[in-house]
Design a protein that fits this description.
Number of domains: 3
CATH architecture of the largest domain: 4-Layer Sandwich
Oligomer: single chain
Largest sheet: 8 strands, antiparallel
Number of helices: 19
Strand content: 15-25%
Strand order of the largest sheet: 3-2-4-1-10-9-11-15
CATH class of the largest domain: Alpha Beta
Shape: globular
Structural class: alpha/beta
Bound molecules: 6-O-phosphono-alpha-D-glucopyranose
CATH superfamily of the largest domain: Aminohydrolase, N-terminal nucleophile (Ntn) domain
Helix content: 25-40%
CATH topology of the largest domain: Glutamine Phosphoribosylpyrophosphate, subunit 1, domain 1
């Protein structure tokens, strides 16, 4: 998984390509590079490291040229080495390319090209393409034809951008199963994996569909269909994200900024048109059985859904992790599957969609990234409008998805006559008030949470526990903790503790309990029993608790005070407070919060 970018301009493009790389870095950050065309000559610089590190070594800004391509990499084929980083030249150094995706038949192509005398300098699948175009050009003597003929030989997923000395004013780009967008401006055009790469330059964009290719010059562009090779006209979309939204806005990390974005992103989720909510809700009625599917954070979002459908619609909707879905769930045409994905590019989720579609099931999705693959693969898609989420770990996108899911569950409740329209509508008002409460909690509680994080900074093992809807909240919170702090944090149902995990508890083990208000007496009392079990083994207990709950405060080593707010929305308040707790814990450990080790924002490989 990688990010690609290309610019055709009438002015030097190196600095703008560098900015594009910085904006795309969340897609991969183990190496990067750039190639530019100047006075009929190609030049290329690349190296291993984050964008700023490579720039310090390679001095990208010194590269000359008004046409160029750039790439930031997250290794899939071949290790993290300079040779494997992109761009990749053809053997004759007349073509140079960047690629995002996987060419599944590259070994076959490589064998053929080797037999014709081509040499390969990297272990990547990508390098076959630049040489394939060189080979095709011998016959075609026309770059566009050579480019298309080479693409015809590819299998797998790809977004590719190419420049060549044979046609020094044009970027050639193509898309299949990996995202690609075009940005349009006066005298300069952009190609990229993501609108965010050029958001500071233009908001006018065209989202490419699979099997479309582009010929882009500084003053015009042509979109063509790969099969017919005929020109197509496509709608220009003006994206609403602005430069400021995409920047850090004074926060020390994107993670913190994105946690603080949540009052607004919740409002955006509430502004998703009712008709879109109703369309997806209708599927839960039309079909015999529905499922909720996501992976990583979005699996836990799906799990929250299971509790919401049960409560508000009296309907059991199983949630399944996307990576298990294809082997586990025997779907058919009487089924409906609702998918969740922030990036809209996650491989496991896409494979689950493929299985559901192939079996004739209805598919729908809640997705953040406009134009992403998943949004185009399902029958119905809601764009949650959370804006770019740059930090690798997901915060604001997950909470927004839960709000949208909540709205769908309420609508299904009405359609199933389990809930009155009046009650469902009244919830809408509570949600709007809730967005204000989030702002208040973030401003008032951050200091206390930061305090707790420094008091517990030596803790290495955590159990995160909750019951009912607080259980998936505990799971997601434990995942957040693992992702940013690399500490062991195990999420489990509070009631399950006594069935084994209790053996782990001693004075070194810390437990965080997601405890509801006392009014929620069944959940409260049973969670309290688990707290007692931990205390009886000298385990340390941290719990969310109400200000006036003196009884529980006596039991706890540390309390995280939850302000008095809507009891039904308290799980979400606790989730947001747990996001902050993970953030401050990682801050104390001095870790790379926005780019934790071994993780990538969207995992587009299986
Ligand atoms: C990766 C990320 C996780 C994310 C998951 C699903 O594993 O590291 O943070 O939750 O993908 O991503 P999606 O974009 O589909 O929500």
């Amino acid at each position: 998984m990688c990010g690609i970018s290309a610019i055709a301009s009438h002015k030097p493009v190196a600095a703008k390509l560098l900015t594009a790389l910085q904006n795309l870095e969340y897609r991969g950050y183990d190496s990067c590079g750039m190639a530019l065309l100047h006075e009929g000559q190609l030049s290329l610089r690349k190296n291993v490291g984050a964008v700023d590190e490579v720039d310090a070594l390679e001095k990208f800004r010194k590269m000359e040229g008004s046409l160029g391509i750039a790439h930031t990499r997250w290794a899939t084929h071949g290790g993290v080495t300079k040779e494997n980083s992109h761009p990749h030249y053809s053997n004759d150094k007349k073509f140079v390319i960047v690629h995002n995706g996987i060419l599944s038949n590259y070994q076959q192509i490589q064998r053929d090209l080797k037999s014709k005398g081509y040499r390969f300098l990297s272990e990547t699948d990508t390098e076959v393409f630049s040489n394939l175009v060189q080979e095709e050009y011998k016959q075609a003597e026309n770059v566009e034809t050579a480019f298309c003929n080479a693409i015809d030989k590819l299998q797998g997923s790809y977004a590719i951008a190419m420049i060549t000395t044979h046609q020094p004013d044009t970027i050639f780009a193509v898309k299949k199963d990996s995202p690609l967008v075009l940005g349009i401006n006066d005298g300069v055009n952009y190609v990229s994996s993501d609108i965010n790469a050029f958001i500071a330059e233009t908001r006018d964009t065209i989202i490419l569909d699979d099997m479309e290719y582009l010929l882009v010059k500084n003053d015009n562009y042509v979109i063509k269909n790969l099969l017919t090779r005929k020109e197509k006209s496509k709608q220009v979309i003006t994206v609403q994200w602005d430069r400021q939204t995409a920047q850090m806005g004074g926060f020390s990390h994107y993670m913190l900024k994105e946690i603080f974005d949540q009052p607004q992103t919740v409002r955006n989720a509430l502004h998703v048109p009712n008709e879109q909510i109703q369309t997806i809700a209708g599927k839960f009625i039309e079909k015999e059985q529905s499922f909720c599917v996501g992976v990583g954070t979005t699996y836990y979002v799906a799990m929250v859904g299971t509790y919401l459908f049960s409560k508000y619609a009296n309907l059991y909707v199983p949630s399944i992790s996307a990576d298990e879905f294809p082997t586990l769930i025997p779907v058919n045409k009487d089924n409906h599957v609702l998918f969740f994905s922030q990036s809209g590019e996650t491989y496991d989720t896409r494979m689950a969609i493929r299985k559901a579609r192939n079996c004739g099931a209805a598919t729908s999705a809640v997705v953040n990234v406009v134009g992403s693959s998943i949004s185009q693969e399902v029958d119905d898609c809601i764009f949650q409008g959370s804006g770019p989420e740059i930090c690798v770990v997901s915060t604001k996108a997950a909470v927004s998805q839960i709000i949208i899911l909540w709205r769908i569950a309420l609508e299904v409740g009405v359609l199933r006559n389990h809930l009155s329209r009046k009650d469902a509508d009244a919830f809408q008002g509570r949600f709007f008030k809730f967005s204000e409460t989030i702002g208040q909690v973030l401003n008032e509680e951050s200091g206390f949470i930061r305090d707790l994080a420094s008091k517990t900074s030596r803790v290495r093992n955590w159990l995160f526990m909750g019951k009912g809807i607080y259980y998936p909240i505990a799971l997601e919170s434990a995942l957040k903790m693992k992702e940013v702090t690399y500490l062991h944090a195990e999420g489990l149902p509070a009631g399950f503790l006594k069935h084994g995990t209790l053996a782990m508890v001693d004075e070194e083990m810390y437990s965080l309990f997601f405890l509801p208000y006392k009014d929620d007496s069944d959940l409260y009392n049973s969670t309290l029993m688990s707290i007692e079990e931990v205390k009886a083994r000298n385990g340390k207990v941290v719990a969310f608790c109400a200000e006036d709950d003196d009884e529980i405060k006596k039991l706890l080593d540390f309390g995280l005070i939850i302000p008095k707010t809507d009891p039904e929305l308290t799980p979400l308040i606790q989730l947001i407070m747990a996001q902050l707790f993970s953030y401050y814990s990682a801050l104390n450990l001095g870790l790379n919060i926005d780019k934790p080790r071994n993780l990538a924002k969207s995992v587009t490989v299986g």
